[in-house]
Amino acid sequence: MREALVMAVEKDLDLVEVSPEATPPVCKLLDFGKYKYQLSKKQTAGKRIDVKEVKIRPQIDIHDLELKVRNIRRFLDEGNKAKVMMFLRGREMARPDLGMKVFEKISQMLTGKFNIEVMPKLEGKSITMVIAPGGK
User: Can you tell me the distance from the alpha carbon of 22 to that of 60, in angstroms, rounded to the nearest whole number?
Assistant: First the structure.
């Protein structure tokens, strides 16, 4: 055991006991800080959630809207967030309430467990809403 400690100090590494119950105890030389960093990277890689974007228009037809809602539902089922964006052009800027009605239709058409993280809001020339998977 003392030889292992001397080797660890010489190589500027840490001595980690892998199996203390074994006779003799099993130890490993490694850089513990680097090991913890790699472990945290693996954990965050598994939790990664993408934000998928869906673009719509205020004058969208009902069948096109159903297709967009189907895509949103697919994104949510895969565990991703969905960002619904509507760009207003020209005279559409005078009637943002028509765009808000489309967002109401989307929330009514969505079934299942989801959570609206960011309610639809007008930001300049666009209206955005973020939907996340989860309990409702």
Answer: 69
